[in-house]
Write a structure and sequence with these properties.
Chain lengths: 181, 294
């Protein structure tokens, strides 16, 4: 089927051009920006908002390093368009601690358990851990359960064992509200 | 690895989406959850002139029961099926199979209609739709059309959906209370495409023998396959280990997938009978549990 230029123009008139203005609630602040409708959420967060904790490993939904929380759910930000987040909420790891000198209990758990090496997968792992805790079961997950829950995020460094321990430690910290050894 | 330019439309009604689809036909693509389409755009395997984002259409996000049918809107997110009470009660195979789709991050966005329209032969929802005798509901310029799942999948990632139509819902017959279901996949890693998978629903009569068997098999051919030969080999038989194993072998001639990076043809022939046997065995165990009220 061929399409005349004229009809494309009429659609463009109704829906706006290849650019749109969006207002997104990112890390507890409303931000308004004009975006190209083909910009992915990941590129928007990194390039427009400077949230470079969003790591791009593959840009086609294989590695999970670009995971963010969209309306509270973990999603791959390379597989969404920025324009789709208009009126929605996005969280990245930058939102966790009050200031850059502090660590959130989940981040403390990753540091203490050495749940990271190069750190490329870590922001995704931390956010996924937050989601696991929030959608939470009230008991600590077994090793096998944690491995299943984080299976959408590839880590090329750690062999996962310390990440599993970090997730369990984070669960204890956030549940008890206190620290543990 | 960035999407090519397109005209982005985000209609809020099915009517509007159908109007766009009628106007742009194969120059347009529907964006649902985007878990397959976004990678295709990022890799420039797809270059639609117009992208029709259906995520704002509330009418596509309903889950409803009427009579003996569970109707699931095309825009329902896959993770919603996993612990939806009505879905679990009426068609328990669905939540079970859905848990095998990719990873949770994909199921948070991926939709029911998107999986069916993408029609990957390894995918769980197409295979389940074929096993459950589901009906696909599509809308085009001349109105609604319904297509049996087994006619909907026509070839490798090819469906009966016309370029000017939009997939709007899937209708699943409610599974009888006493039936048992099973879903089994073999994949190298959690969340990978299945090397082979099977979905089964069975009913056992008063005498304990099979009164009905439905089995769908994924990843062994261009489309999900209905294992008719396996089914007819079991009707009237007792659900013994031997009978199930022997009947499961009947799937082997349906394996047409050629050798690929992930498995050889011969290995898939072997796996096909294994997943069919396991899925039926799991379904029989559930049917027994239900009968014994556990
Ligand atoms: S960059 Fe998004 S999944 Fe790899
Ligand atoms: S710490 Fe390097 S990828 Fe996970």
């Amino acid at each position: 089927m061929t399409t005349s230029k004229a009809s494309t123009t009429s659609i463009a008139a109704k829906y706006g051009t290849a650019r749109r203005t969006v207002t997104v609630h990112v890390n507890e602040r409303d931000v308004t920006r004009e975006v190209s409708t083909r910009t992915t959420l990941a590129d928007f967060l990194r390039d427009e908002l400077g949230l470079v904790s969003v790591h791009l490993g593959c840009e086609h939904g294989e590695c999970g390093s670009c995971t963010v929380l969209f309306d509270g759910h973990s999603v791959r930000s390379c597989l969404m368009l920025a324009v789709q987040t208009d009126g929605h909420t996005v969280e990245t790891v930058e939102s966790l601690a009050g200031n850059p000198a502090e660590l959130h209990p989940i981040q403390e758990a990753f540091a203490e358990e050495q749940g990271l090496q190069c750190g490329f997968c870590t922001p995704a792992m931390v956010l996924r851990t937050k989601e696991i805790i929030e959608t939470g079961r009230d008991r600590e997950l077994t090793d096998a359960e944690v491995r299943h829950e984080i299976s959408g995020i590839l880590c090329r460094c750690t062999g996962y064992q310390n990440i599993v321990r970090a997730v369990q430690s984070a669960q204890r910290r956030c549940r008890g509200g206190g620290r543990d050894a | 690895m960035k999407p090519p330019p397109f005209t982005y439309c985000d209609p809020e009604s099915v009517d509007e989406a159908v109007a766009l689809k009628s106007e742009y036909g194969s120059d347009s693509l529907v964006l649902a959850g985007g878990q397959s389409l976004l990678p295709m755009l990022n890799m420039r395997l797809a270059r639609p002139e117009v992208l029709i984002d259906i995520n704002k259409i509330g009418d596509l996000q309903r889950i409803e029961r009427w009579d003996d049918i569970l109707e699931v809107g095309a825009g329902v997110r896959q993770y919603e099926l996993e612990d939806h009470q009505l879905v679990g009660e009426l068609v328990p195979l669905l939540p079970e199979a859905t848990g095998y789709i990719g990873h949770i991050e994909c199921r948070h966005r991926g939709t029911v209609g998107g999986s069916l329209a993408h029609a990957h032969s390894a995918a769980e929802l197409p295979c389940t739709a074929v096993a459950l005798d589901a009906t696909v509901v599509v809308r085009g310029p001349s109105g609604i059309r319904t297509i049996e799942a087994r006619d909907f999948f026509q070839g490798r990632m090819t469906t009966a959906l016309e370029p000017e139509e939009v997939l709007v819902a899937v209708r699943y017959p409610v599974t009888p209370q006493a039936a048992g279901h099973g879903f089994v996949e073999v994949a190298r890693r959690a969340g990978d495409f299945a090397l082979a998978g099977a979905a089964a629903v069975v009913n056992l009569g008063e005498d304990g023998c099979f009164t009905s068997v439905s089995v769908g098999v994924s990843s062994i051919s261009d489309t999900p396959v209905r294992a008719s030969a396996v089914e007819s080999a079991l009707i009237g038989e007792a659900p013994t280990e031997n009978n199930i194993a022997r009947a499961a072998e009947e799937i082997v001639p349906s394996v047409t997938a050629a050798d690929d990076l992930h498995a050889t043809h011969d290995y898939r022939r072997h796996l096909a009978s294994v997943v069919v046997r396991r899925a039926i065995t799991a379904a029989v165990a559930r049917a027994h549990e239900r009968r014994n009220g556990t």
